[in-house]
Design goal:
Elements (H helix, E strand, L loop, with lengths): L1 H11 L7 H16 L1 H10 L6 H26 L4 E2 L4 E2 L9 H8 L4 E5 L20 E8 L1 E9 L10 E8 H16 L8 H4 L3 E9 L1 H14 L5 E9 L5 E8 L9 H5 L1 H10 L3
Antiparallel strand pairs: 1-2, 3-7, 4-7, 4-8, 5-6, 8-9
Enzyme class: lyase
Protein name: glutathione-specific gamma-glutamylcyclotransferase
EC number: 4.3.2.7
Length: 282
């Protein structure tokens, strides 16, 4: 027990007590030591000197292991999307992920296709998508069954938290039909029995398909996550390359009807949406 106490005290002098993570590591080390006194008794029998090199090595390894575990926990905590209602963004640019994104990257040997349908078509900025000299390619393509809608409130690109503007998102035809039907039921108390032909025809959204090489994928995702932090999330959809006619899967950033910045009224009332876009600045 004395040996255990000396180890803990001696180890404590190496750790700044004001540091949260190191304090947690020290507490974890003390707990391990106190719960396993038999280890120190046996170890003391074969290691009479506290300052032996082997003993120092064991303490150092234990400390490093604890620190790695703590950093992993903190990194996982930071990766949880958190919506800030005041700023109307996902904090730190950590947006909701999609389970198929990593599968998509693996199936393409590390490269990644990204479908742009809004500002990414004409303004990739200084991001990794603009690095054509490093292997990023682009091709025209289209998403069938997806509708471009000006129904995403924006407090960081086309507006402010006090007066959000509007930007576009992609919704499936089924999502749009469900929103319209729910609104009509709310007003009239019943659903329509017949749907017009124009409402059943598949929508088509033209855009740009970027192909990002493996070396730039991680940076590209980080940059786009931050760019699309205003309520967007990752999705994976089928897109058609215009030139080849080939259908491929691509990453898509979109604001779903469930996201906190979605504006149902803007979707259903185009004059209202136009009025917002006419006066919003940001």
């Amino acid at each position: 027990l004395l040996y255990c106490h000396l180890c803990c005290v001696g180890f404590g002098f190496l750790i700044p007590p004001s540091t949260t993570t190191t304090t947690r590591a020290f507490k974890s080390f003390k707990t391990t030591a106190l719960l396993q006194p038999h280890f120190f008794v046996l170890h003391n029998a074969f290691t009479p000197t506290l300052a032996s090199g082997r003993n120092k090595s064991n303490h150092k390894s234990s400390f490093i292991l604890n620190m790695k575990e703590i950093k992993t926990e903190e990194r996982e905590e930071q990766q949880e999307p958190t919506w800030c209602p005041e700023q109307q963004i996902y904090v730190g640019g950590v947006v909701p992920d999609h389970v198929e994104v990593q599968q998509l990257i693996s199936s393409n040997k590390g490269s990644l296709r990204i479908f742009g349908y809004g500002s990414l078509c004409w303004n990739p900025g200084d991001s990794s998508l603009a690095k054509s000299e490093e292997g990023v390619t682009m091709a025209l393509g289209r998403a069938v069954g997806w509708k471009r809608c000006w129904s995403q409130k924006s407090a960081d690109h086309r507006g402010t938290p006090e007066f959000p503007g509007l930007v576009c998102t992609l919704l499936t035809d089924e999502e749009v039909r469900c929103i319209i039907a729910a609104e009509e039921k709310k007003k009239n108390g019943q659903m329509r029995e017949h749907v017009g032909e124009e409402e059943t025809a598949a929508s088509m959204t033209e855009g740009v398909i970027y192909t990002v090489p493996p070396a730039l994928v991680e940076d590209c995702l980080s940059e786009l996550d931050f760019r699309e932090k205003g309520g967007y999330s990752r999705d994976v959809i089928d897109v058609i390359e215009d030139e080849s006619g080939k259908t491929v899967k691509a990453l898509l950033y979109r604001g779903t009807p469930e996201n906190p910045a979605f504006s149902k009224r803007a979707l259903l009332d185009l004059p209202f949406a136009a009025a917002i876009m006419a006066v919003s600045t940001g």
